[in-house]
Amino acid sequence: MPRRNRLIALVALALAGCAGDLKTSLEQLVEARRLAADLLVQFTKVVESGDRAVMADTDEASIASSRETEQTTQLVQRDADALKPVLAGLGYSQEARLLEDFQQRFSEFRALDTTILGLAVENTNLKAQRLSFGSAQQAADAFRDALEPITRSVPAQAPWRAAALAATAVAAVREIQVLQAPHIAEPEDAVMASLEQRMMTAEAGARAALEEMAGLLPSEVRPRLSAATAALDRFMSANAEIIRLSRRNSNVRSLALSLGQKRTLTARCEETLRSLQDALEQRKLNGGTR
């Protein structure tokens, strides 16, 4: 009997150990599935917050979304780091390879996203647009307003010529304003250069009109042109800044990268994560597959 009892005790102990191992394996499998699911959720959040940073219409919104992207990126890395030893403990080589594939692709994604977010928060195209509708518009209107009373001071023999020159100068400034919008939206350097050349031609026309107008005015009236010239100078200074910001093209470039390379990398990352989830769902409690 004592010998039989010892045998029963040994069998019971072995069964208890197997039950404990099974419980541990089950807990690890549940944890692996949880981490894999959270990986996909957090990665989706990274993509969405990055897209919001690109599409934001204010610096504050771009910066806030960029910070959110950085924080969520850390959560993705945390889940991946936590999942790796769990898969190793379970001996799941297929799932471990899928996780490694995701980490490599996510590394590429992060590098690209860092570039995109850096461009997005600059908002140079939006700033150029605001400047076009703000300071440049005000200076252009001031130029027009400064010329109106001057034309009425021209001697009776040439009022039509002065009015024509004033109209020519104002039209030249308005042409530059019209060209600002396509310049801000244009991604190609060659097209922007062509638009800038047209702006320079228009500016030369405006200044030539002012110079000819000065020759028609009585000497006592010519100083009044100073206000118009000053307004034109302010407008061209604002236009130069618009061109500088537009040339940087941060919004256009970040959007192009988001719709191109980022979309491709996003699809690859999501595909790998879904394959990882599917593989874990097919695992039996004993470590095999259905």
User: How much of the residues is beta strand, in percent?
Assistant: under 5%
CATH top-level class of the largest domain:
Mainly Alpha
Largest beta sheet, briefly?
A: none
Estimated radius of gyration? 35 Å
Helix content: over 70%
- Total of domains: 2
Note the total helix count.
9
- Separation, N- and C-terminal Cα atoms: 43 Å
In the CATH classification, which architecture of the largest domain applies?
Up-down Bundle
Broad shape? rod-shaped
Question: Can you tag this structure with a few keywords?
Answer:
290 residues; mainly alpha; Four Helix Bundle (Hemerythrin (Met), subunit A); de novo design (two linked rop proteins); 2 domains; 9 helices; rod-shaped
Describe the 3D structure.
- The protein is an all-alpha fold and 290 residues long.
- It is built from nine helices and no strands.
- The chain has helices at residues 2-55, 59-90, 93-122, 124-133, 135-151, 159-185, 189-216, 225-248, 250-281.
- α2 (59-90) packs antiparallel against α3 (93-122) and α4 runs antiparallel to α6.
- The longest helix has 54 residues, at 2-55.
- The protein starts with a helix and ends in a 9-residue tail after the last helix.
Brief write-up:
This protein is an all-alpha fold and 290 residues long.
List the helices and strands and how they pair.
Elements: H1 2-55, H2 59-90, H3 93-122, H4 124-133, H5 135-151, H6 159-185, H7 189-216, H8 225-248, H9 250-281
Helix pairs in contact: 1-2, 1-3, 1-9, 2-3, 3-9, 4-5, 4-6, 4-8, 5-6, 5-8, 6-7, 6-8, 7-8
